[in-house]
Amino acid sequence: MSEHAPRKHTEVAVGILLKSNGEMLLTSRPEGKPYAGYWEFPGGKLEAGETVEQALRRELQEELGITIGTASVWKVTEHDYPHALVRLHWCKVFEWQGEFEMREGQSMSWEPWPPQVKPILPGAVPVLEWFAEERGEPFDPATIG
Ligand SMILES: Nc1nc2c([nH]c(=O)n2[C@H]2C[C@H](O)[C@@H](COP(=O)(O)OP(=O)(O)OP(=O)(O)O)O2)c(=O)[nH]1
């Protein structure tokens, strides 16, 4: 690729699973992936021909063993990592079925606000800023990650 060729975006579907008590699901990135051990919202890359919702449903089935209800895109962000330029399609998810199974050897944690696990993947930080805004609270990214 030429030095000046624009980088192609990698499209990623990400689920923000929310319990009625306000807790959100974070999962750790498995060994072998970039940023292994960092905490993130579960999801993954779109495959050819998939919508965001289809990709999210497939990824959460594959990685966590659950079947999600409807999911629609809430916000879209981009993050430029050394390994990829990603476009993240964030979906809030309120309904799912099945028992959680960590099929990729990752960990999961239902986190209160503000989340306590560290470090958090840089591309996931905007979500925490939106939650802080929704709550009308100041948010200091230095306190996480
Ligand atoms: N799942 C997820 N990915 C995120 C978040 N924030 C963020 O920047 N990303 C980035 C990291 C990765 O570059 C990309 C997701 O790709 P991935 O490698 O985890 O997806 P995948 O499961 O489809 O991976 P694989 O099939 O290639 O192993 O999006 C987040 O909160 N959740």
From TrEMBL:
Residues binding Mg(2+): G43, E63
Organism of provenance: Diaphorobacter ruginosibacter
Residues that coordinate or bind 8-oxo-dGTP: R29, E40, F41, P42, G43
Catalytic activity: 8-oxo-dGTP + H2O = 8-oxo-dGMP + diphosphate + H(+); 8-oxo-GTP + H2O = 8-oxo-GMP + diphosphate + H(+)
Stretches assigned to the Nudix hydrolase domain: 7-133
Protein EC: 3.6.1.55
Protein name, UniProt field: 8-oxo-dGTP diphosphatase
Biological processes annotated in GO: DNA repair; DNA replication
InterPro entries, alphabetized: Mutator_MutT (IPR003561), MutT-like (IPR047127), Nudix_hydrolase (IPR020476), NUDIX_hydrolase-like_dom_sf (IPR015797), NUDIX_hydrolase_CS (IPR020084), NUDIX_hydrolase_dom (IPR000086)
First-level EC class: hydrolase
Top-rank lineage group of the source organism: Bacteria
CDD domains xrefs: NUDIX_MutT_NudA_like
GO MF annotation terms: 8-oxo-7,8-dihydrodeoxyguanosine triphosphate pyrophosphatase activity; 8-oxo-7,8-dihydroguanosine triphosphate pyrophosphatase activity; 8-oxo-dGDP phosphatase activity; 8-oxo-GDP phosphatase activity; metal ion binding
Record keywords, A-Z: DNA damage, DNA repair, DNA replication, Hydrolase, Magnesium, Metal-binding, Mutator protein
Keyword Transferase tagged: no
PROSITE patterns: NUDIX, NUDIX_BOX
Record-stated family: Belongs to the Nudix hydrolase family.
Cofactor(s) required for function per UniProt: Mg(2+)
